[in-house]
Amino acid sequence: MSDWIHNLPVGWLALLVLGSTYLGTAAIYSVVMGLAVGERARVFKGVTPGLLPPLGIIFGLLVAFVAAQVWGDIDRANTAVNREASALRAVVLLSARFPGEGENRVRGLIRRHIQEVQAGEWPAMARQRATLTMIPAPLAEALQTTLTLATRDEGQVTAQREIVVSLENALDARRQRILLSQSEVNWVKWTALIIQAICTLTAIAMVHSDNRATARLAMGLFSTAVAVCIVLIAAHDRPFIGPISVRPVVLSHVQPESVVADTGP
Known about the structure:
The protein has 265 residues and is mainly alpha-helical. It has one domain. 75% of the residues lie in helices and 0% in strands. It contains ten helices and no strands. Helix 2 (10-35) crosses helix 8 (187-207). The protein is rod-shaped, with a radius of gyration of 27 Å.
């Protein structure tokens, strides 16, 4: 699906999907009822109602199959962002073991990284244009700065080691969220889902071709269920775009308020 559809408010997305589904259902109804005359009417009535439950079950299984991917991507995206935030928070806290210039430098770089993520990386991930070739310069510089810090006691040695580990964790979590930003339900799955819905609606129309009121009611109910499933999947299709996407809020919570004043050695 295109970016503009994913960026629609959920209400407008629901209206768009419901309208498209009802139009498609009306087209199927018109075609089947138009053909249900003479010999074809007897053929259509020969379609057993027992066909409908298996078709409905297959549609439900396809929805569950696609939804499992969507929910998994959302969960992994949230986990990656939370992990990155936790790692950056650990760096900020541990940098206090190097008061003065070292702490100022590390905190300033973490602050810059979070600002760049919010201003640049997040919009790029929403458009699926973020790649692993985009090097987070502030984190790389923070890693280099940490490795050059002079240690005076065992506590600082331990803090330096933990800062390096936390920065590596933050980099790994960033890689995970960028990879997840490329995830979406591909056209094959969407096509399979829609074709299965069309087959089921067509079967409903054939089974009830001799009772048009019943056919309209049954098709209306099933098409509404189809639309609800599509809205639910489409609203969560890509983890970093849309009104209910994963946001960098947790990263902003760990951003240093300001650079610590130089307190000297």
